[in-house]
Amino acid sequence: MNTIRENNVSDQVLVGRVLGGDTNAFRLIMKNTEGLVGQIVFKMVKNPADRKDIAQDIYLRTFQKLNTFQFQSKLSTWIGQIAYNSCLGYLEKKKLVLLDSVNDEEENEILEKLNYAIDPFVSETESIFFKQELSAILKIEIDKLSPIYKTLITLYHNEELSYAEITEITQLPEGTVKSYLSRARKLLKDNLLLTYKKEAL
Amino acid sequence: MKNIHLTDEEIQRYALETENCPKVWTDHIQHCPHCQQQVQAYQLLFEGIESQEQVMFDFDLADLVIEQLPQSKPVQDKPFVFSIAAVVALMIGVAGYVFGNSLTNLFFYLQPILVGLVILTSFGVMVFLGIDMYQRYKVQMKVLNFY
Description:
- The complex is a heterodimer.
- Chain A is mainly α.
- Chain A has helices at 2-19, 23-44, 48-65, 75-93, 104-116, 124-144, 147-158, 163-170, 174-200.
- Chain A has two domains: 2-93, RNA polymerase sigma factor, region 2, helix turn helix motif (Rna Polymerase Sigma Factor, Chain: A); 104-200, Arc Repressor Mutant, subunit A.
- Chain A contains nine helices and no strands.
- In chain A, helix 2 packs across helix 3, helix 3 (48-65) packs across helix 4 and helix 6 (124-144) packs across helix 9.
- Chain A is elongated, with a radius of gyration of 20 Å.
- Among the domains of chain B are: 8-50, no CATH class; 111-147.
- Chain B contains six helices and no strands.
- The chains are: A mainly alpha, B mainly alpha.
- At the A-B interface, helix 2, helix 3, helix 6, helix 7 and helix 9 of A face helix 1, helix 3 and helix 4 of B.
């Protein structure tokens, strides 16, 4: 509770300084939120040149709208929401799909294969090997996920945001966020096991 | 104890927050190798996700954005500005009191052509400054209204 109040106070101070014409305060806001914005942009936009443009647009838009910020959430969450909406706009403009639906047939196929999969966690050696390879394989597997799944996984597991904060950023109902996250994790786990099995064979 | 396997969502929740899960789940998992394996798979997955490198832009985003922002007005020290204004007002008042008559006479003795020249020059400078200010305003608005 105290942390929230402290965040709010420091947000108010920073926003006040920016509105008073202090661009260094805006630089500080950018430094504080660049990690979160980066995670969203990297997960939703593949093209590096587009990422650069979108990242700039996000902060220019933030600057333009800063006087409308009502302090009903953390400033970082509000900027995260702008970042998410900007990326969403980009995906719509490029006619890219936010969420690839995995059809049941495909899902069943994965599960069927998994039934025959070698148990990758039985032996300790295998487990150690798996851990070593996990990070590299996982990076590829996360990249294969839909933009929304990638973003949700990152916001929850890497940025350690709460469901409420993710809901605020994405403007999705909390139930949908939970359901998408659950599906994303399952898909990731299944794909990871399949990849691992292929590599082990 | 729960005899059927835990659902995937229950397994995920158990892997994320073991201590907050119902006892029936814990009891089941302790006796079910299949569910234990699933939990372990998810725990490894979460560990793997959390160990992913933090992404970073390969350019200085702050510099790029700041240079596109409209120039900030210098923050002025209000008491200082007020004291300067007071001094100027005092000087004008003293000058008016001491040289009042001479100043009034100055305008009567000046040639009309000279007065016209002063007015015309002042007007010209004001128009020039006004146009310059409007052009700068348009450039700044163009930067901001990119959507």
